[in-house]
Design brief:
heterodimer, A: 257 residues, alpha+beta, 4-stranded mixed β-sheet, 8 helices, 13 strands, 25% helix, elongated, B: 434 residues, mainly alpha, Formate dehydrogenase/DMSO reductase fold, two-stranded antiparallel sheet, 14 helices
Chain lengths: 257, 434
C-alpha cells in the first residue's frame, strides 16, 4: 500500500469510527437511567431562624451512621459573636452536636473565652454542610473517581472504591470532608441522598424545629427553595474558589468564613 | 446509640492540636508520610539528574559518582511509592489508581509517570552494566566449583542478560548510545516525576500556602539539591566503609567484592577517588542550591508583598508558629550554613559531607514546612493546628504515620541498595568510557 493510500484510508477509518462511536454515546446507560434535567438539588439555610440547638447535627449523625462521639461530622453549626470593638469570636464545640448551652466560647487550646453581654454587638449561628458544588474541587482531585457528581447535582463518595488518600479532604475549601472513623474512607454530607431520592426530606431539615434548613429542587420555579434563591438576597460561602456552591444562605454576614 | 460508642479517635486526631476556631472536620490529614513522599521522590529525581550530568553532558569529573548515583536512584525508586501506600487509609486499594485513573486528578498520573521513569532507569542500568553482566555470566559459568551463592548469582545474571551476549565493539558502541539517549530522556521524566509531586500540592486551591504555580519548580530544584546531597553523603559513607573494610578485609561490607570475588579495592586508590568525586559534586550542589533558595525566597516575598486575604494567617504561621522550623532549621541550618561551608575555598571531603548532611536536613525541613505548615492554619484563617509527630506508636496508625513509619521509609533504600550492589556493583570502575 502506498503511503498516500494508507493515510487516506486511515483518515476515512478514523472519521468513520468516530461517527459511529459518537452514536454509541447516545446509549450511555447512565444517561438513560438517571438523566433528569428537571432536577438539581439545592439547599437553603435561613441563618435568622437558627438557634444553635444542634438537633440537625444529632439527626444527621444518627441517620447516616457517623458515630456520635467521633469528632467529625457531616454537618455542624457555628456560633459567631461580634463585639462592639469589631472582634469576632467563633466556636463550634463538637460541631454543636449537643447545641450551644453555655455562653463560654470554646477556643480549643486557648481555653474558654467569655464575652460580656454588654460587649456583644451581635451574635448568630450558621449551620454548615456540604455545598454540593457545581464544579466540585473534591471530584476534580479524586485520583480514582470514587467521588462523583450525580446528574441531579449531589456529590457522593463510593465507599467501595475510595483509596483513602485524603486528596479530596485537602481539596475541599469548606472542610466538609473527613475520614469515616469506621469505614476508613472519605465521607461527607450526601443531602441524605437515600431519603430525598425517595421523596423524603434530609434528616437535618426534618429535625430542625425552626425551619432554618430546607432542601429543594432549584430547577422547579414553584419550589420554595428555588423561589427564595430567586427572589431573596442570598449568599454563598467562599465563592472565590470558583466551586459554585449550591447551599444558599439568607442573612450571611461578611464575618462568616 | 450514644452510650454504645466509647470515645472514638478519628484519623488525624491523635497528632493534631487545635487552637482558636477550627472547623470540626479539620485535622492534619497529611502527615509525616506525605512529608516523606516528596522527599523520597526528590532524592530519586536528584540522584538521577546527577548521574545524567555525566552520561548526557559528559561531565567526566563525575564519572565514578554517576554510576553510583544511577544504581542508588534505582534503589530509591520503590521507596518513593512506600510513603503513599503507608499513608492510604485503604492501602490494598492503591492499585485502583492504575485501574481507574481519574485524569482530572494530579495523583492519577502517578502510576504512569512512575512506571515510565522506572522503565527508563532500569533500561539505563541494563545498558550501563550489560558488558559487566555478560562477562559475569562468562566468568561464573566457566567456574567449575560454584558455590550455591555463585550459582544463584549466575542464574540472576543469565536472566537479566536477556540473552544479549554480544559484546563486540559495535554492540558496546550501541549500548553507549542507548545510555546517552535514556539518560537524556530520563532528565525531563525525572523532573516531571518530581515537578508533578509539586503540582499535587500547588494545585490545591483550597490551601493558601500550597497554591502557587512556583511549587513544581521549587520542588524540582530542591529535589536536585537533596538528591545530589544524598549522593555525596552516602557516597562518602560507603567509600569510608569500603576503605575501612578494604584495610581490614571485612568482605561483608563490600557486597560487590563478596559477590564477585574481585577484591580489587585498594585503600589509597579509594581515597583519591572519593576525594575527587565528592569535591566535584559539591560544586554542582552549590549551583542548584542557589537556584532553589532564590525560588523559595521569591515565593515568600511575593506572598508578603501581595498580602491577599490569607496572608494574615500565613504570616502568623510563618513568622510565629513555625519561625524556628522555617528560618532557623530550614534556612539558617539547612541552607545558609552549608552554602557558606561549600563556598569557603579548599573544600575537604569531610566538610562537603557535613554540608551535605545539613542540606539534606534543610530539604527535609522544607518538605515539612510545606506539607505540615500548609495544614497549620484553618480554612477559616481564624484558627491553627499544631502537629505532633507520634514517636511511640500505640496502634498501627500511629506507627505508619509516626516516627517508625518515617524511619522505615528512610532505611529501606539502603537495604535495597546493599543487595542491588551485589548484582550491579555501583562502585565498579571501568577502564573505558563507561
Amino acid at each position: 500500500m502506498k503511503r498516500r493510500d494508507f493515510l487516506k484510508n486511515a483518515a476515512v477509518f478514523v472519521s468513520g469510527a468516530s461517527v459511529s462511536l459518537g452514536a454509541l454515546e447516545l446509549l450511555d446507560p447512565r444517561q438513560l437511567l438517571a438523566a433528569n434535567p428537571e432536577l438539581r438539588w439545592g439547599f437553603l439555610v435561613n441563618t435568622h431562624n437558627c438557634v444553635g440547638c444542634g438537633f440537625c447535627v444529632k439527626a444527621c449523625k444518627v441517620e447516616n451512621d457517623i458515630p456520635l462521639e467521633a469528632n467529625v461530622t457531616r454537618t455542624w453549626v457555628e456560633r459567631y459573636v461580634i463585639t462592639k470593638d469589631g472582634d469576632v469570636v467563633m466556636d463550634t464545640p463538637k460541631g454543636a452536636l449537643n447545641g450551644f448551652t453555655s455562653k463560654l466560647i470554646d477556643q480549643n487550646q486557648s481555653g474558654m473565652k467569655q464575652v460580656d453581654d454588654e460587649e456583644i454587638a451581635q451574635a448568630f449561628f450558621v449551620p454548615k454542610l456540604c455545598n454540593h458544588c457545581d464544579t466540585p474541587a473534591c471530584v476534580q482531585v479524586c485520583p480514582v473517581g470514587a467521588t462523583y457528581q450525580t446528574k441531579d447535582g449531589t456529590v457522593l463518595v463510593d465507599r467501595k472504591w475510595c483509596i483513602g488518600c485524603g486528596y479530596c479532604i485537602m481539596g475541599c475549601p469548606y472542610g466538609v470532608r473527613f475520614f469515616h472513623p469506621v469505614e476508613h474512607v472519605a465521607d461527607k454530607c450526601t443531602f441524605c441522598y437515600h431519603r430525598i431520592s425517595n421523596g423524603g426530606n434530609t434528616a437535618c431539615a426534618q429535625a430542625c424545629p425552626f425551619g432554618a434548613r430546607q432542601i429543594g429542587n432549584l430547577r422547579d420555579p414553584n419550589d420554595p427553595v428555588a423561589k427564595a434563591v430567586m427572589n431573596q438576597r442570598v449568599g454563598v460561602l467562599r465563592d472565590e474558589y470558583g466551586t459554585k456552591p449550591q447551599v444558599f444562605y439568607i442573612g450571611l454576614n461578611k464575618e462568616v468564613r | 446509640m450514644v452510650e454504645q460508642v466509647a470515645q472514638m479517635v478519628v484519623h488525624g486526631e491523635a497528632w493534631t492540636l487545635k487552637d482558636l476556631f477550627v472547623l470540626p472536620n479539620e485535622y492534619v490529614y497529611w502527615s509525616i508520610q506525605i512529608v516523606m513522599y516528596p522527599y523520597m521522590t526528590g532524592l530519586v529525581a536528584g540522584a538521577f539528574v546527577l548521574s545524567s550530568l555525566y552520561h548526557v553532558f559528559g561531565v567526566e569529573k563525575l564519572k565514578e559518582i554517576a554510576r553510583y548515583a544511577l544504581v542508588f536512584s534505582f534503589a530509591l525508586l520503590p521507596v518513593a511509592m512506600m510513603p503513599l501506600l503507608l499513608h492510604l487509609m485503604q492501602p490494598l486499594r492503591g492499585i485502583n489508581v492504575l485501574m481507574t485513573p481519574h485524569f482530572t486528578s494530579a495523583i492519577s498520573a502517578f502510576g504512569i509517570v512512575f512506571m515510565t521513569y522506572a522503565c527508563i532507569v532500569a533500561a539505563e542500568i541494563w545498558f550501563v552494566y550489560r558488558e559487566f553482566i555478560v562477562s559475569s555470566v562468562n566468568r561464573l559459568s566457566a567456574k567449575s566449583d560454584r558455590s550455591l551463592y555463585e550459582s544463584l548469582l549466575l542464574l540472576i545474571y543469565r536472566l537479566i542478560s536477556l540473552g544479549a551476549m554480544d559484546v563486540s565493539r559495535d554492540a558496546l558502541e550501541a549500548d553507549h548510545k542507548a545510555v546517552k539517549f535514556l539518560a537524556g530522556l530520563g532528565i525531563p521524566v525525572a523532573c516531571f516525576l518530581h515537578g508533578y509531586a509539586g503540582f499535587i500540592f500547588g494545585s490545591v486551591k483550597a490551601n493558601a500556602l500550597w497554591m502557587t504555580p512556583l511549587m513544581p519548580v521549587i520542588f524540582i530544584c530542591s529535589a536536585i539539591v537533596s538528591g545530589i546531597a544524598l549522593c555525596i553523603i552516602s557516597y562518602y559513607i560507603f567509600m569510608e566503609m569500603r576503605k575501612w573494610a578494604a584495610r581490614r578485609g571485612k568482605s561483608f561490607l563490600l557486597p560487590d567484592a563478596l559477590a564477585h570475588g574481585s577484591a580489587a579495592v585498594d585503600y589509597e586508590h579509594l581515597r583519591s577517588v572519593q576525594d575527587h568525586e565528592v569535591r566535584m559534586t559539591s560544586k554542582y550542589l552549590l549551583i542548584f542550591m542557589t537556584l532553589a533558595i532564590t525560588l523559595e525566597l521569591l515565593d515568600m516575598i511575593f506572598r508578603g508583598y501581595t498580602a491577599v486575604k490569607s496572608w494574615d494567617a500565613l504570616r502568623q504561621v510563618i513568622y510565629e508558629h513555625d519561625f524556628v522550623k522555617i528560618f532557623i532549621m530550614q534556612y539558617a541550618i539547612g541552607n545558609v550554613l552549608p552554602f557558606v561551608m561549600l563556598l569557603i575555598p579548599g573544600v575537604t571531603v569531610r566538610r562537603a559531607a557535613l554540608a551535605s548532611i545539613l542540606v539534606l536536613f534543610g530539604v527535609l525541613m522544607m518538605r515539612w514546612n510545606v506539607v505540615i505548615g500548609g495544614q497549620a492554619f484553618s480554612l477559616t484563617f481564624n484558627g491553627f493546628m499544631h502537629y505532633h509527630l507520634p514517636i511511640i506508636p500505640h496502634d498501627i496508625e500511629t506507627f505508619k504515620e509516626g516516627l517508625g513509619g518515617a524511619l522505615t521509609v528512610i532505611v529501606t533504600p539502603f537495604v535495597i541498595f546493599y543487595f542491588l550492589n551485589m548484582i550491579f556493583p555501583a562502585f565498579m570502575e571501568s577502564k573505558d568510557s563507561h
